[in-house]
């Protein structure tokens, strides 16, 4: 094989064809059929039409670009010439998109999700380019995928080796990788990966254990206290419970039952570690009430029925004797089926209730007189009566969340607003959420997703609310005896929907459906940032005997995962937990589950009897095989009084003796909620900003203000790659 000398103007006729079109002399005519090569022709350059000016650098497979396209730009569909502007469809079977090109994220290789959002590892071509917005399920581009990080999505990294260009915020301190402050909504929110490596996983699907065989009082309303005791109450005016009020012979008169003596307990204190029960006296009826915790740790119970409607009850950690101290006729109006939302200074709004289109503003103490402020939104979202019957409502126990701008996000029935709690003024209206109704009595589930704080508290925080389940708008009217004699148990909804509350143009985004339909369930924030759906039914609504087909199977929700991989069903219980049941995350990470009484009175016959057993569910992260990877917080070497914006230290150990660093752990703060009727009021989880980790000592920064973390007691957890420690109580102010 020989090559033509450079000074030759034309190739000889025989037999001097240039192998693979290399090194053609200047001025040589364009080749046709491989006879003549143009200047700078690449190997494999075949079939350029006769008479063309410049053959594109390369087009494998013999596809033909127009020769008037210098540099191979603007090739027709089906062709790709190594240029920068390969059109959609330009890489057959998704294989050979040239380096430096992409197609708007529309043409990932086979197996990639539509829209190019979830390309699997190895799906990129030419070592450089992933479609914009792409990630690999864990928000990580494959290692070595694109040297220089030219087209790695903003939130992606590849094991700390390649980082996006023009980055500004460290993935974690000490790493060379940095991330731009970016959010898919364009709001500039801080949203780095949770971990710097793949989290630990397990095939363990949980375990159920009976913790108390007969607690005696149904758990309608529940609050975990900072002394590791739980307080719960039931109604006082619908007959006796199954436990006498102690001490024996203590039979105070019941003002809501013709002032007759009542020797039975309707409230109790429960030791979540030992299962010990001590009865607690409650005078005014807390039936379908609400509640919250004051900054000093005392429980406030608000509203209820009859005399309880305008009452406020205080259960103090320091008062001698287990009883509620009560103040009657304090609230501006009766609050029955209302929701409480703690504000930045520890005060609270007590929102809505039956025929109550307003809220009470309550200061952070017990000696007060409330201020009543109108909220027309509650009237607007009330489902009208069916014929001459009662209002269907569908907006009781509204979902309320304090958000980082100090306003309150409220969702009722099928829509939401953001309002100023000091004035009642509407700050923003959100689009209608189609599909059905989500609040009592259709009783869907909602949560504020974990709030991600930056190490210096200077970055905007992404704020997302998820709303799931419920039932169609007429489900209650079709099943409840007050509306119909021909009862129909409508299937519950199984959809989930999310909204970015502070986005410039917020819209409801369809999330992955739950594995099964659910009404009356609870939605809990877990210590590791995941969520748990538990309790409830698959058909019907809240109300006496208004549901059937209990949902026995907890569902783990992992909002950080790719669509299609966000849910995992865990092991089911055998005990139905339907109307008037509760659940709560405990300091050891277990889930306490209690209650269920879908009847007017305590009833122990039929398919869904009054349930007085207490269970504990051990979630997936309590797999015994993970024990060596579970952090243990050293109580005596950890700060337990945190100040807004100030540094604090947390010391922990690990049985595996690993010296953990950035990207290995999260530090989370859980505000334990007041739970009733499927809504965990005031529930929030903060993922704190970590400044440094040295020798398993975390230096972190307290939340910036009460708008992010209302003052009070929180459970603090160290989570190692999704495996949480036992929590300890800390106080924030």
Automatic annotation (TrEMBL):
Sequence ranges assigned to domain Glyoxal oxidase N-terminal in this UniProt record: 220-621
Any one Pfam family match given in the protein's UniProt record, by short name: Glyoxal_oxid_N
Record keyword Signal present: yes
Entry keywords, A to Z: Signal
Compositional bias segments (type: Basic and acidic residues): 33-43, 148-160
Ranges where the record places region Disordered: 1-43, 76-160, 238-258
Domain Galactose oxidase-like Early set per the UniProt entry, residue ranges: 630-732
The protein, known as: Uncharacterized protein
């Amino acid at each position: 094989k020989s090559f033509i000398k450079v000074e030759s103007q034309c190739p000889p006729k025989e037999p001097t064809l240039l192998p693979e079109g290399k090194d053609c002399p200047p001025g040589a005519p364009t080749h046709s059929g491989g006879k003549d090569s143009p200047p700078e022709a690449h190997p494999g350059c075949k079939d350029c039409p006769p008479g063309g000016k410049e053959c594109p650098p390369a087009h494998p497979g013999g596809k033909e670009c127009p020769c008037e396209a210098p540099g191979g730009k603007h090739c027709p569909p089906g062709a790709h010439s190594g240029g920068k502007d390969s059109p959609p469809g330009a890489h057959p079977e998704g294989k050979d998109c040239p380096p430096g090109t992409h197609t708007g994220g529309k043409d990932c290789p086979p197996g990639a999700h539509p829209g190019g959002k979830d390309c699997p590892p190895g799906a990129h071509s030419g070592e450089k380019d992933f479609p914009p917005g792409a990630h690999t399920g864990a928000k990580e581009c494959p290692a070595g995928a694109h040297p220089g990080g030219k087209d790695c999505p903003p939130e992606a990294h590849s094991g700390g080796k390649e980082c996006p260009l023009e980055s500004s915020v460290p993935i974690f301190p000490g790493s060379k990788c940095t991330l731009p402050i970016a959010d898919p909504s364009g709001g500039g929110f801080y949203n780095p990966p949770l971990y710097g490596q793949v989290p630990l996983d397990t095939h363990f699907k949980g375990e159920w254990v009976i913790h108390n065989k007969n607690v005696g009082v149904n758990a309608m309303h529940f609050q975990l206290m900072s002394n590791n005791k739980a307080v719960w109450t039931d109604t006082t005016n619908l007959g006796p419970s199954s436990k006498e009020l102690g001490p024996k012979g203590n039979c105070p008169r019941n003002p809501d039952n013709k002032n007759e003596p009542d020797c039975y307990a309707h409230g109790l204190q429960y030791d979540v570690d030992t299962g010990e029960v001590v009865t607690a006296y409650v005078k005014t009826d807390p039936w379908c009430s609400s509640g919250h915790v004051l900054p000093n740790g005392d429980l406030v119970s608000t509203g209820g029925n009859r005399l309880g409607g305008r009452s406020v009850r205080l259960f103090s950690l320091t008062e001698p004797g287990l009883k509620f101290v009560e103040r009657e006729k304090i609230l501006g109006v009766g609050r029955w089926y209302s929701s409480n939302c703690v504000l930045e200074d520890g005060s609270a709004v007590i929102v809505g209730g039956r025929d109550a289109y307003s809220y009470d503003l309550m200061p952070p103490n017990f000696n007060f007189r409330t201020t009543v402020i109108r909220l027309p939104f509650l009237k607007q979202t009330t489902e009208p009566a069916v014929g001459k019957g009662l209002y269907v409502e569908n907006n009781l126990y509204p979902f309320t969340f304090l958000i980082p701008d100090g306003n309150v996000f409220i969702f009722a029935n099928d829509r939401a607003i953001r309002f100023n709690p000091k004035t009642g003024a509407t700050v923003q209206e959100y689009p209608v959420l189609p599909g059905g109704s989500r609040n009592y009595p259709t009783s869907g589930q909602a949560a504020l997703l974990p709030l991600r704080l930056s190490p210096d508290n200077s970055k905007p925080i992404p704020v997302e609310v998820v709303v799931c389940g419920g039932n169609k708008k007429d489900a209650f009217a079709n099943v409840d005896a007050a509306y119909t004699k021909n009862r129909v148990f409508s299937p519950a909804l199984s959809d989930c929907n999310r909204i970015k509350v502070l986005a410039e143009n917020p819209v409801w985004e369809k999330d992955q459906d739950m594995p099964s339909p659910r009404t009356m369930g609870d939605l809990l924030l877990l210590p590791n940032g995941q969520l748990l759906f538990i309790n409830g039914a698959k058909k019907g609504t809240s109300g006496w005997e208004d549901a059937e087909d209990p949902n026995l199977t907890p569902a783990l929700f992992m909002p950080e995962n790719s669509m299609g991989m966000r849910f995992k069903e865990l092991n089911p219980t055998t005990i139905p937990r339907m109307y008037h049941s509760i659940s709560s995350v405990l300091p050891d990470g277990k889930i306490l589950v209690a209650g269920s009484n879908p009847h007017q009175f305590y009833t122990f016959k039929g398919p869904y009897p009054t349930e007085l057993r207490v269970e504990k569910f051990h979630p997936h992260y309590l797999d015994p095989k993970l024990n060596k990877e579970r952090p243990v917080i050293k109580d005596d070497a950890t700060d337990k009084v945190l100040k807004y914006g100030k540094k604090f230290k947390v010391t922990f150990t690990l049985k595996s003796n690993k010296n953990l660093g950035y990207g290995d752990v999260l530090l989370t703060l859980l505000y334990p909620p007041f739970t009733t009727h499927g809504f965990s009021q005031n529930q929030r989880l903060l993922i704190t900003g970590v400044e440094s980790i040295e020798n398993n000592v975390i230096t972190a920064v307290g939340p910036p203000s009460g708008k992010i973390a209302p003052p009070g007691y929180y459970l603090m957890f160290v989570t190692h790659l999704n495996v949480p420690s036992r929590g300890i109580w800390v106080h924030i102010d």
